[in-house]
Amino acid sequence: MTDTTILDQDRDAGFGDYFALLKPRVMSLVVFTALVGLLVAPGQINPFVGLCAILFIAVGGGASGALNMWWDADIDARMKRTIKRPIPAGKVEPGEALGLGVALTGFSVILLFLATNWVAGALLAFTIFFYVVIYTMWLKRWTPQNIVIGGAAGAFPPMIGWAAVTGDITIESILMFALTFAWTPPHFWSLALFVKSDYKDAGVPMLTVTHGRRVTRNHILGYTFVLAAVALGLGLTSIGGPAYMAVAVILNGWFIKGAIDIWRRTDADSEADSHLVERKFFKFSLFYLFIHFGMLLVETSLAPLGLGGW
Hints:
mainly alpha, Tetracycline Repressor, domain 2, 2 domains, 15 helices, cell membrane, Protoheme IX farnesyltransferase, UbiA_prenylTrfase_CS, protoheme IX farnesyltransferase activity, membrane
């Protein structure tokens, strides 16, 4: 067997490579928030239909990931944290990723529509379109506000889960959307503060690259205050309650403190110390959203006992 043959075999794509195209870590957030939206929604849904709905939403999220990796293969090849993705690593051909993304898009949208209702199906279709076309193909390479506007794509899943049950859009589902939407900028900008060279090398106009660290810190603080207001506002709706509100007050107090710690950093501070503060805030942000949505589930579970809700 020649060395060339061995090399070709090493580069053959396996199931794990195609699964990686679906961005499973991102999908976990999509699935969880969609599940919460479905479970806290008023009304009833057949458990099997509900399970299918979550599956189709997850597949739709995976389709978005595959199409994103197809379009962004050139950027991924220039960034340290993405260079090992299946396409830049040479495991999967770009055309295969495109075909997989398109196929999964059609599959997920049509079956969600058939299993639930047209509102949920339309929201899923719009989510995929927004993430792939509006964010990936347009905003990401054009404006430093890419994360702000593009964050809407990741904020739709709880609305879709809610609509799968109710066939409607209400203030509760809008505020669940707003919670994820407002969380996205401070979450990703804190990451960008300590991986700035990655975005610069790839030519992505992240705020840290175009406007610098001081402006980015200011934006993180501003959006954190907006996020706290949304989180507390959600607690005052029919799906909130005392337990959610108590946890939200504590979490947002910590989050605001973390944003202030970042805001206080200056260019005179050592880079190592600044990165330590930024990484701490970023890691906390990973749990922030899961805990808030988890507390919505707690309120729903307490409601039959007369302990949840206002």
